[in-house]
Amino acid sequence: MATIAQWIEGARPRTLPTAISPVLAGTGAAIGYGVVAPGRALLALVVAVALVVGVNYANDYSDGIRGTDDERVGPLRLVGSKVAEPATVRSLAIVCLSIAGLAGLTLVSLSGQWWLIAVGALCIAGAWFYTGGRRPYGYSGLGEIAVFVFFGPVAVLGTVITQSGPPGPLSVVTAVGVGMLTCAVLVANNLRDISTDTVVGKRTLAVALGDTETRRLYTALVTVPLLLSALAALRSLPMLLGLLVLPLAALLARQVLGGVDGRKLIRVLAQTGMLLLAWSVLTGIGLALSRFT
């Protein structure tokens, strides 16, 4: 039976920046539009965190029963390492996704944006079928596209819409940046797993591109958001705050292009999550300050 520490590790806490970042950025945009709604921001955060933890447990379950996680370089997998029963992991995934759904319904009812129910249902389906079902799209090189859409435009703009209404151009630019940096987290993970994923037939985008091109893709994903910060500053000077993460982005790009591999990529993955969080916080502050410029 898994210990509490193992259950926490199985939730993959290193991925939590991918949940927190879009909510912080979107809330900053809402403040920039003159709206302060801490209750709705908190509900959006519950939705995001519950979805990410839910998808992590769902992936653990689905990959585990397929045998994909039998040989791994990365952190503990509950089912693959046989420290937890598959049915228990599946049930916990369903509980987390249900919490996300309930929090999302509450948020929708408060905002009156009822059409977002369909978007939320799509998010939950996307979380489950990433590695679940007969033909998981995460095994077909579509993971990065889904991550960009769900963690970028959907999460950031959904946060804005439920707090302050229709988003503006700066919010859209921010959503693109958050989506790309979240993709970078996934790409770092899949770069590490190219060899093992190839063996088990998991055709991620990294497997399709190969090692060298995946490293170039990662570099682009951590670089373009900084260019977006510079472009956004032409409209609102505080958006330059996002450029403060340049040293960390440059360090990570240099390491990945330099060929860092194996367990060293686990550290890169964690630092990429911190890069995402830092850029989102700084950009969120820039968005909040944009009302004064």
In total, how many beta strands? 0
The N- to C-terminal Cα distance equals: 56 Å
The percent of residues in helical segments reads over 70%
Number of spatially distinct domains: 1
Mean pLDDT across residues:
93
Task: Give a quick account of the main beta sheet: strands, pairing sense, barrel closure.
Answer: none
The CATH topology turns out to be: Farnesyl Diphosphate Synthase
Low-pLDDT runs of 5+ residues are: none
What overall form do the CA principal axes indicate? globular
- What is the CATH-assigned architecture? Orthogonal Bundle
Structural class: mainly alpha
Strand content: under 5%
Helix tally equals 12
Helix-strand sequence? HHHHHHHHHHHH
Per CATH, the class reads Mainly Alpha
- Rg value: 19 Å
Description:
With 293 residues, the protein is mainly α. It has one domain (14-287): Farnesyl Diphosphate Synthase (Orthogonal Bundle), CATH 1.10.600. Helix content is 72%, strand content 0%. The protein is built from twelve helices and no strands. Helix 2 packs antiparallel against helix 7 (169-192) and helix 4 packs antiparallel against helix 5. The longest helix is centred in the first third of the chain and has 29 residues, at 38-66. The termini are far apart. The mean pLDDT is 93.
